[in-house]
Amino acid sequence: MEKLQVWQQWLSSILNYPLLKLGGAVISLWTFVYFILLLVLLFYMAGKLRSWIVKSILIRTNLDLGARQAIGSIARYLTILIGLLVVAQTVGIDLTTLNVLAGAVGIGVGLGLQNITNNFISGLIILFERPIKVGDRIEVGNVDGDVREIGARSTTVVTNDNISIIIPNSKFVTDNITNWSYTDPTVRFRLPVGVAYGSDVEKVKELLLEVGRENADVLTEPQPKVWFRSFGESSLNFELLVWNTSLVHRKGQFISDLNFAIHKKLKENGIEIPFPQRDLHIRTGTKSLTQSLFDDKAG
User: Fold this and answer.
1) What string of H, E and C letters represents the secondary structure of 224-277?
2) DSSP letter at 221?
3) CA nearest 131: which of 72, 90, 175?
4) Cβ neighbours of residue 256 under 8 Å, at least 6 residues apart?
5) Hey, how many other C-beta atoms are within 10 angstroms of the C-beta on 233?
């Protein structure tokens, strides 16, 4: 029993050993451990609160997934901010004594953490203005994919190859972003088609329209259209325009299916798809060319 008391006193002396002072508050090892435990609990509860708001409360409303995720993230940030103040007061830290420390941190943020701060502020702008939202199909730079998650510092975009790409939030504020589903999921696709000179252009137009009408994923309204674009070097250039809503997230497959159908339709009807070619005309006679070759060998 005495040994246990000795061990308790020894452990208590270690945990209560003062590490530093903040104003009138003494920060001991136990204060530090207690503070870390409360922080872990705070972040865990904030995450659970966000999930509960998104999946249990807002799901009953007419808000889309992106709006629900945005509201949930903002609620999480506010919970963490208020929780940090409460945790600091709980462990006995007087926040008025942290003015100097806050000033030093502000200088550090200004000098060394500019990118992190920029991305965090950009994340808040994205959540409030919602130029992109969870579930959108976007293109930024060379990245083409679906927005999976918008975090405090970065946004996760998943490509059709199931590759997750982490993009800093600042790029969505400063760079040009193509959002395929920003306001209306109905998107027009353009498919260029070249046919050989001498082809019946009216027949080509009708065949391309048939391809559009026969595809189940092409909308009947607006109707498919065919434009005669230009007279190319080796082909007459047309363009098939179709509308779609269901395959915006898989536009590669949609375009591929239409191209297969176009090739089959034109081949079945004897319409040639040309390839670039050049005709070489030799102006000198055969005798002169033969004599030139003979002279080269003799030399």
Assistant:
1) CEEEEEEECCCCEEEEEEEEECCCHHHHHHHHHHHHHHHHHHHHHCCCCCCCCC
2) S
3) 175
4) none
5) 9
Crossing angle for the helix pair 251-268 and 201-214, to the nearest 10 degrees: 130
At CA 61, angle to CA 58 and CA 67, rounded to 5? Answer: 60
Q: What is the mean pLDDT of residues 188-210?
A: 93
Cα–Cα dist 6/1, whole Å: 9
DSSP for 45-101, please give it. HHHHHHHHIIIIIGGGSS--HHHHHHHHHHHHHHHHHHHHHHHHHHTT--GGGGHHH
27's tokens: 């920060």
- Structure tokens given for 129: 């203005």
Q: What's the pTM value of the predicted model, to 2 decimals?
A: 0.57
Taking each helix axis from N to C terminus, what angle separates 29-52 and 65-90, rounded to the nearest 10 degrees?
A: 160
- What are the beta bridge partners of residue 190? 241
Is residue 194 a contact partner of residue 235, using CB atoms and an 8 Å limit?
yes
How many C-beta atoms surround the C-beta of residue 297 within 10 A?
6
pLDDT over 80 (residue 105)? no
- Domains annotated for the chain, with CATH where assigned, are 9-112 (no CATH), 132-179 (2.30.30.60), 187-268 (3.30.70.100)
Give the amino acid at 242.
Answer: V
Q: Hunting for tokens 């939030």 — which residue is that?
A: 169
Model confidence at 93, in pLDDT bands (50, 70, 90)? Answer: low
Q: How far apart are CA 134 and CA 250, in angstroms?
A: 17
Please count the residues of the chain: 299
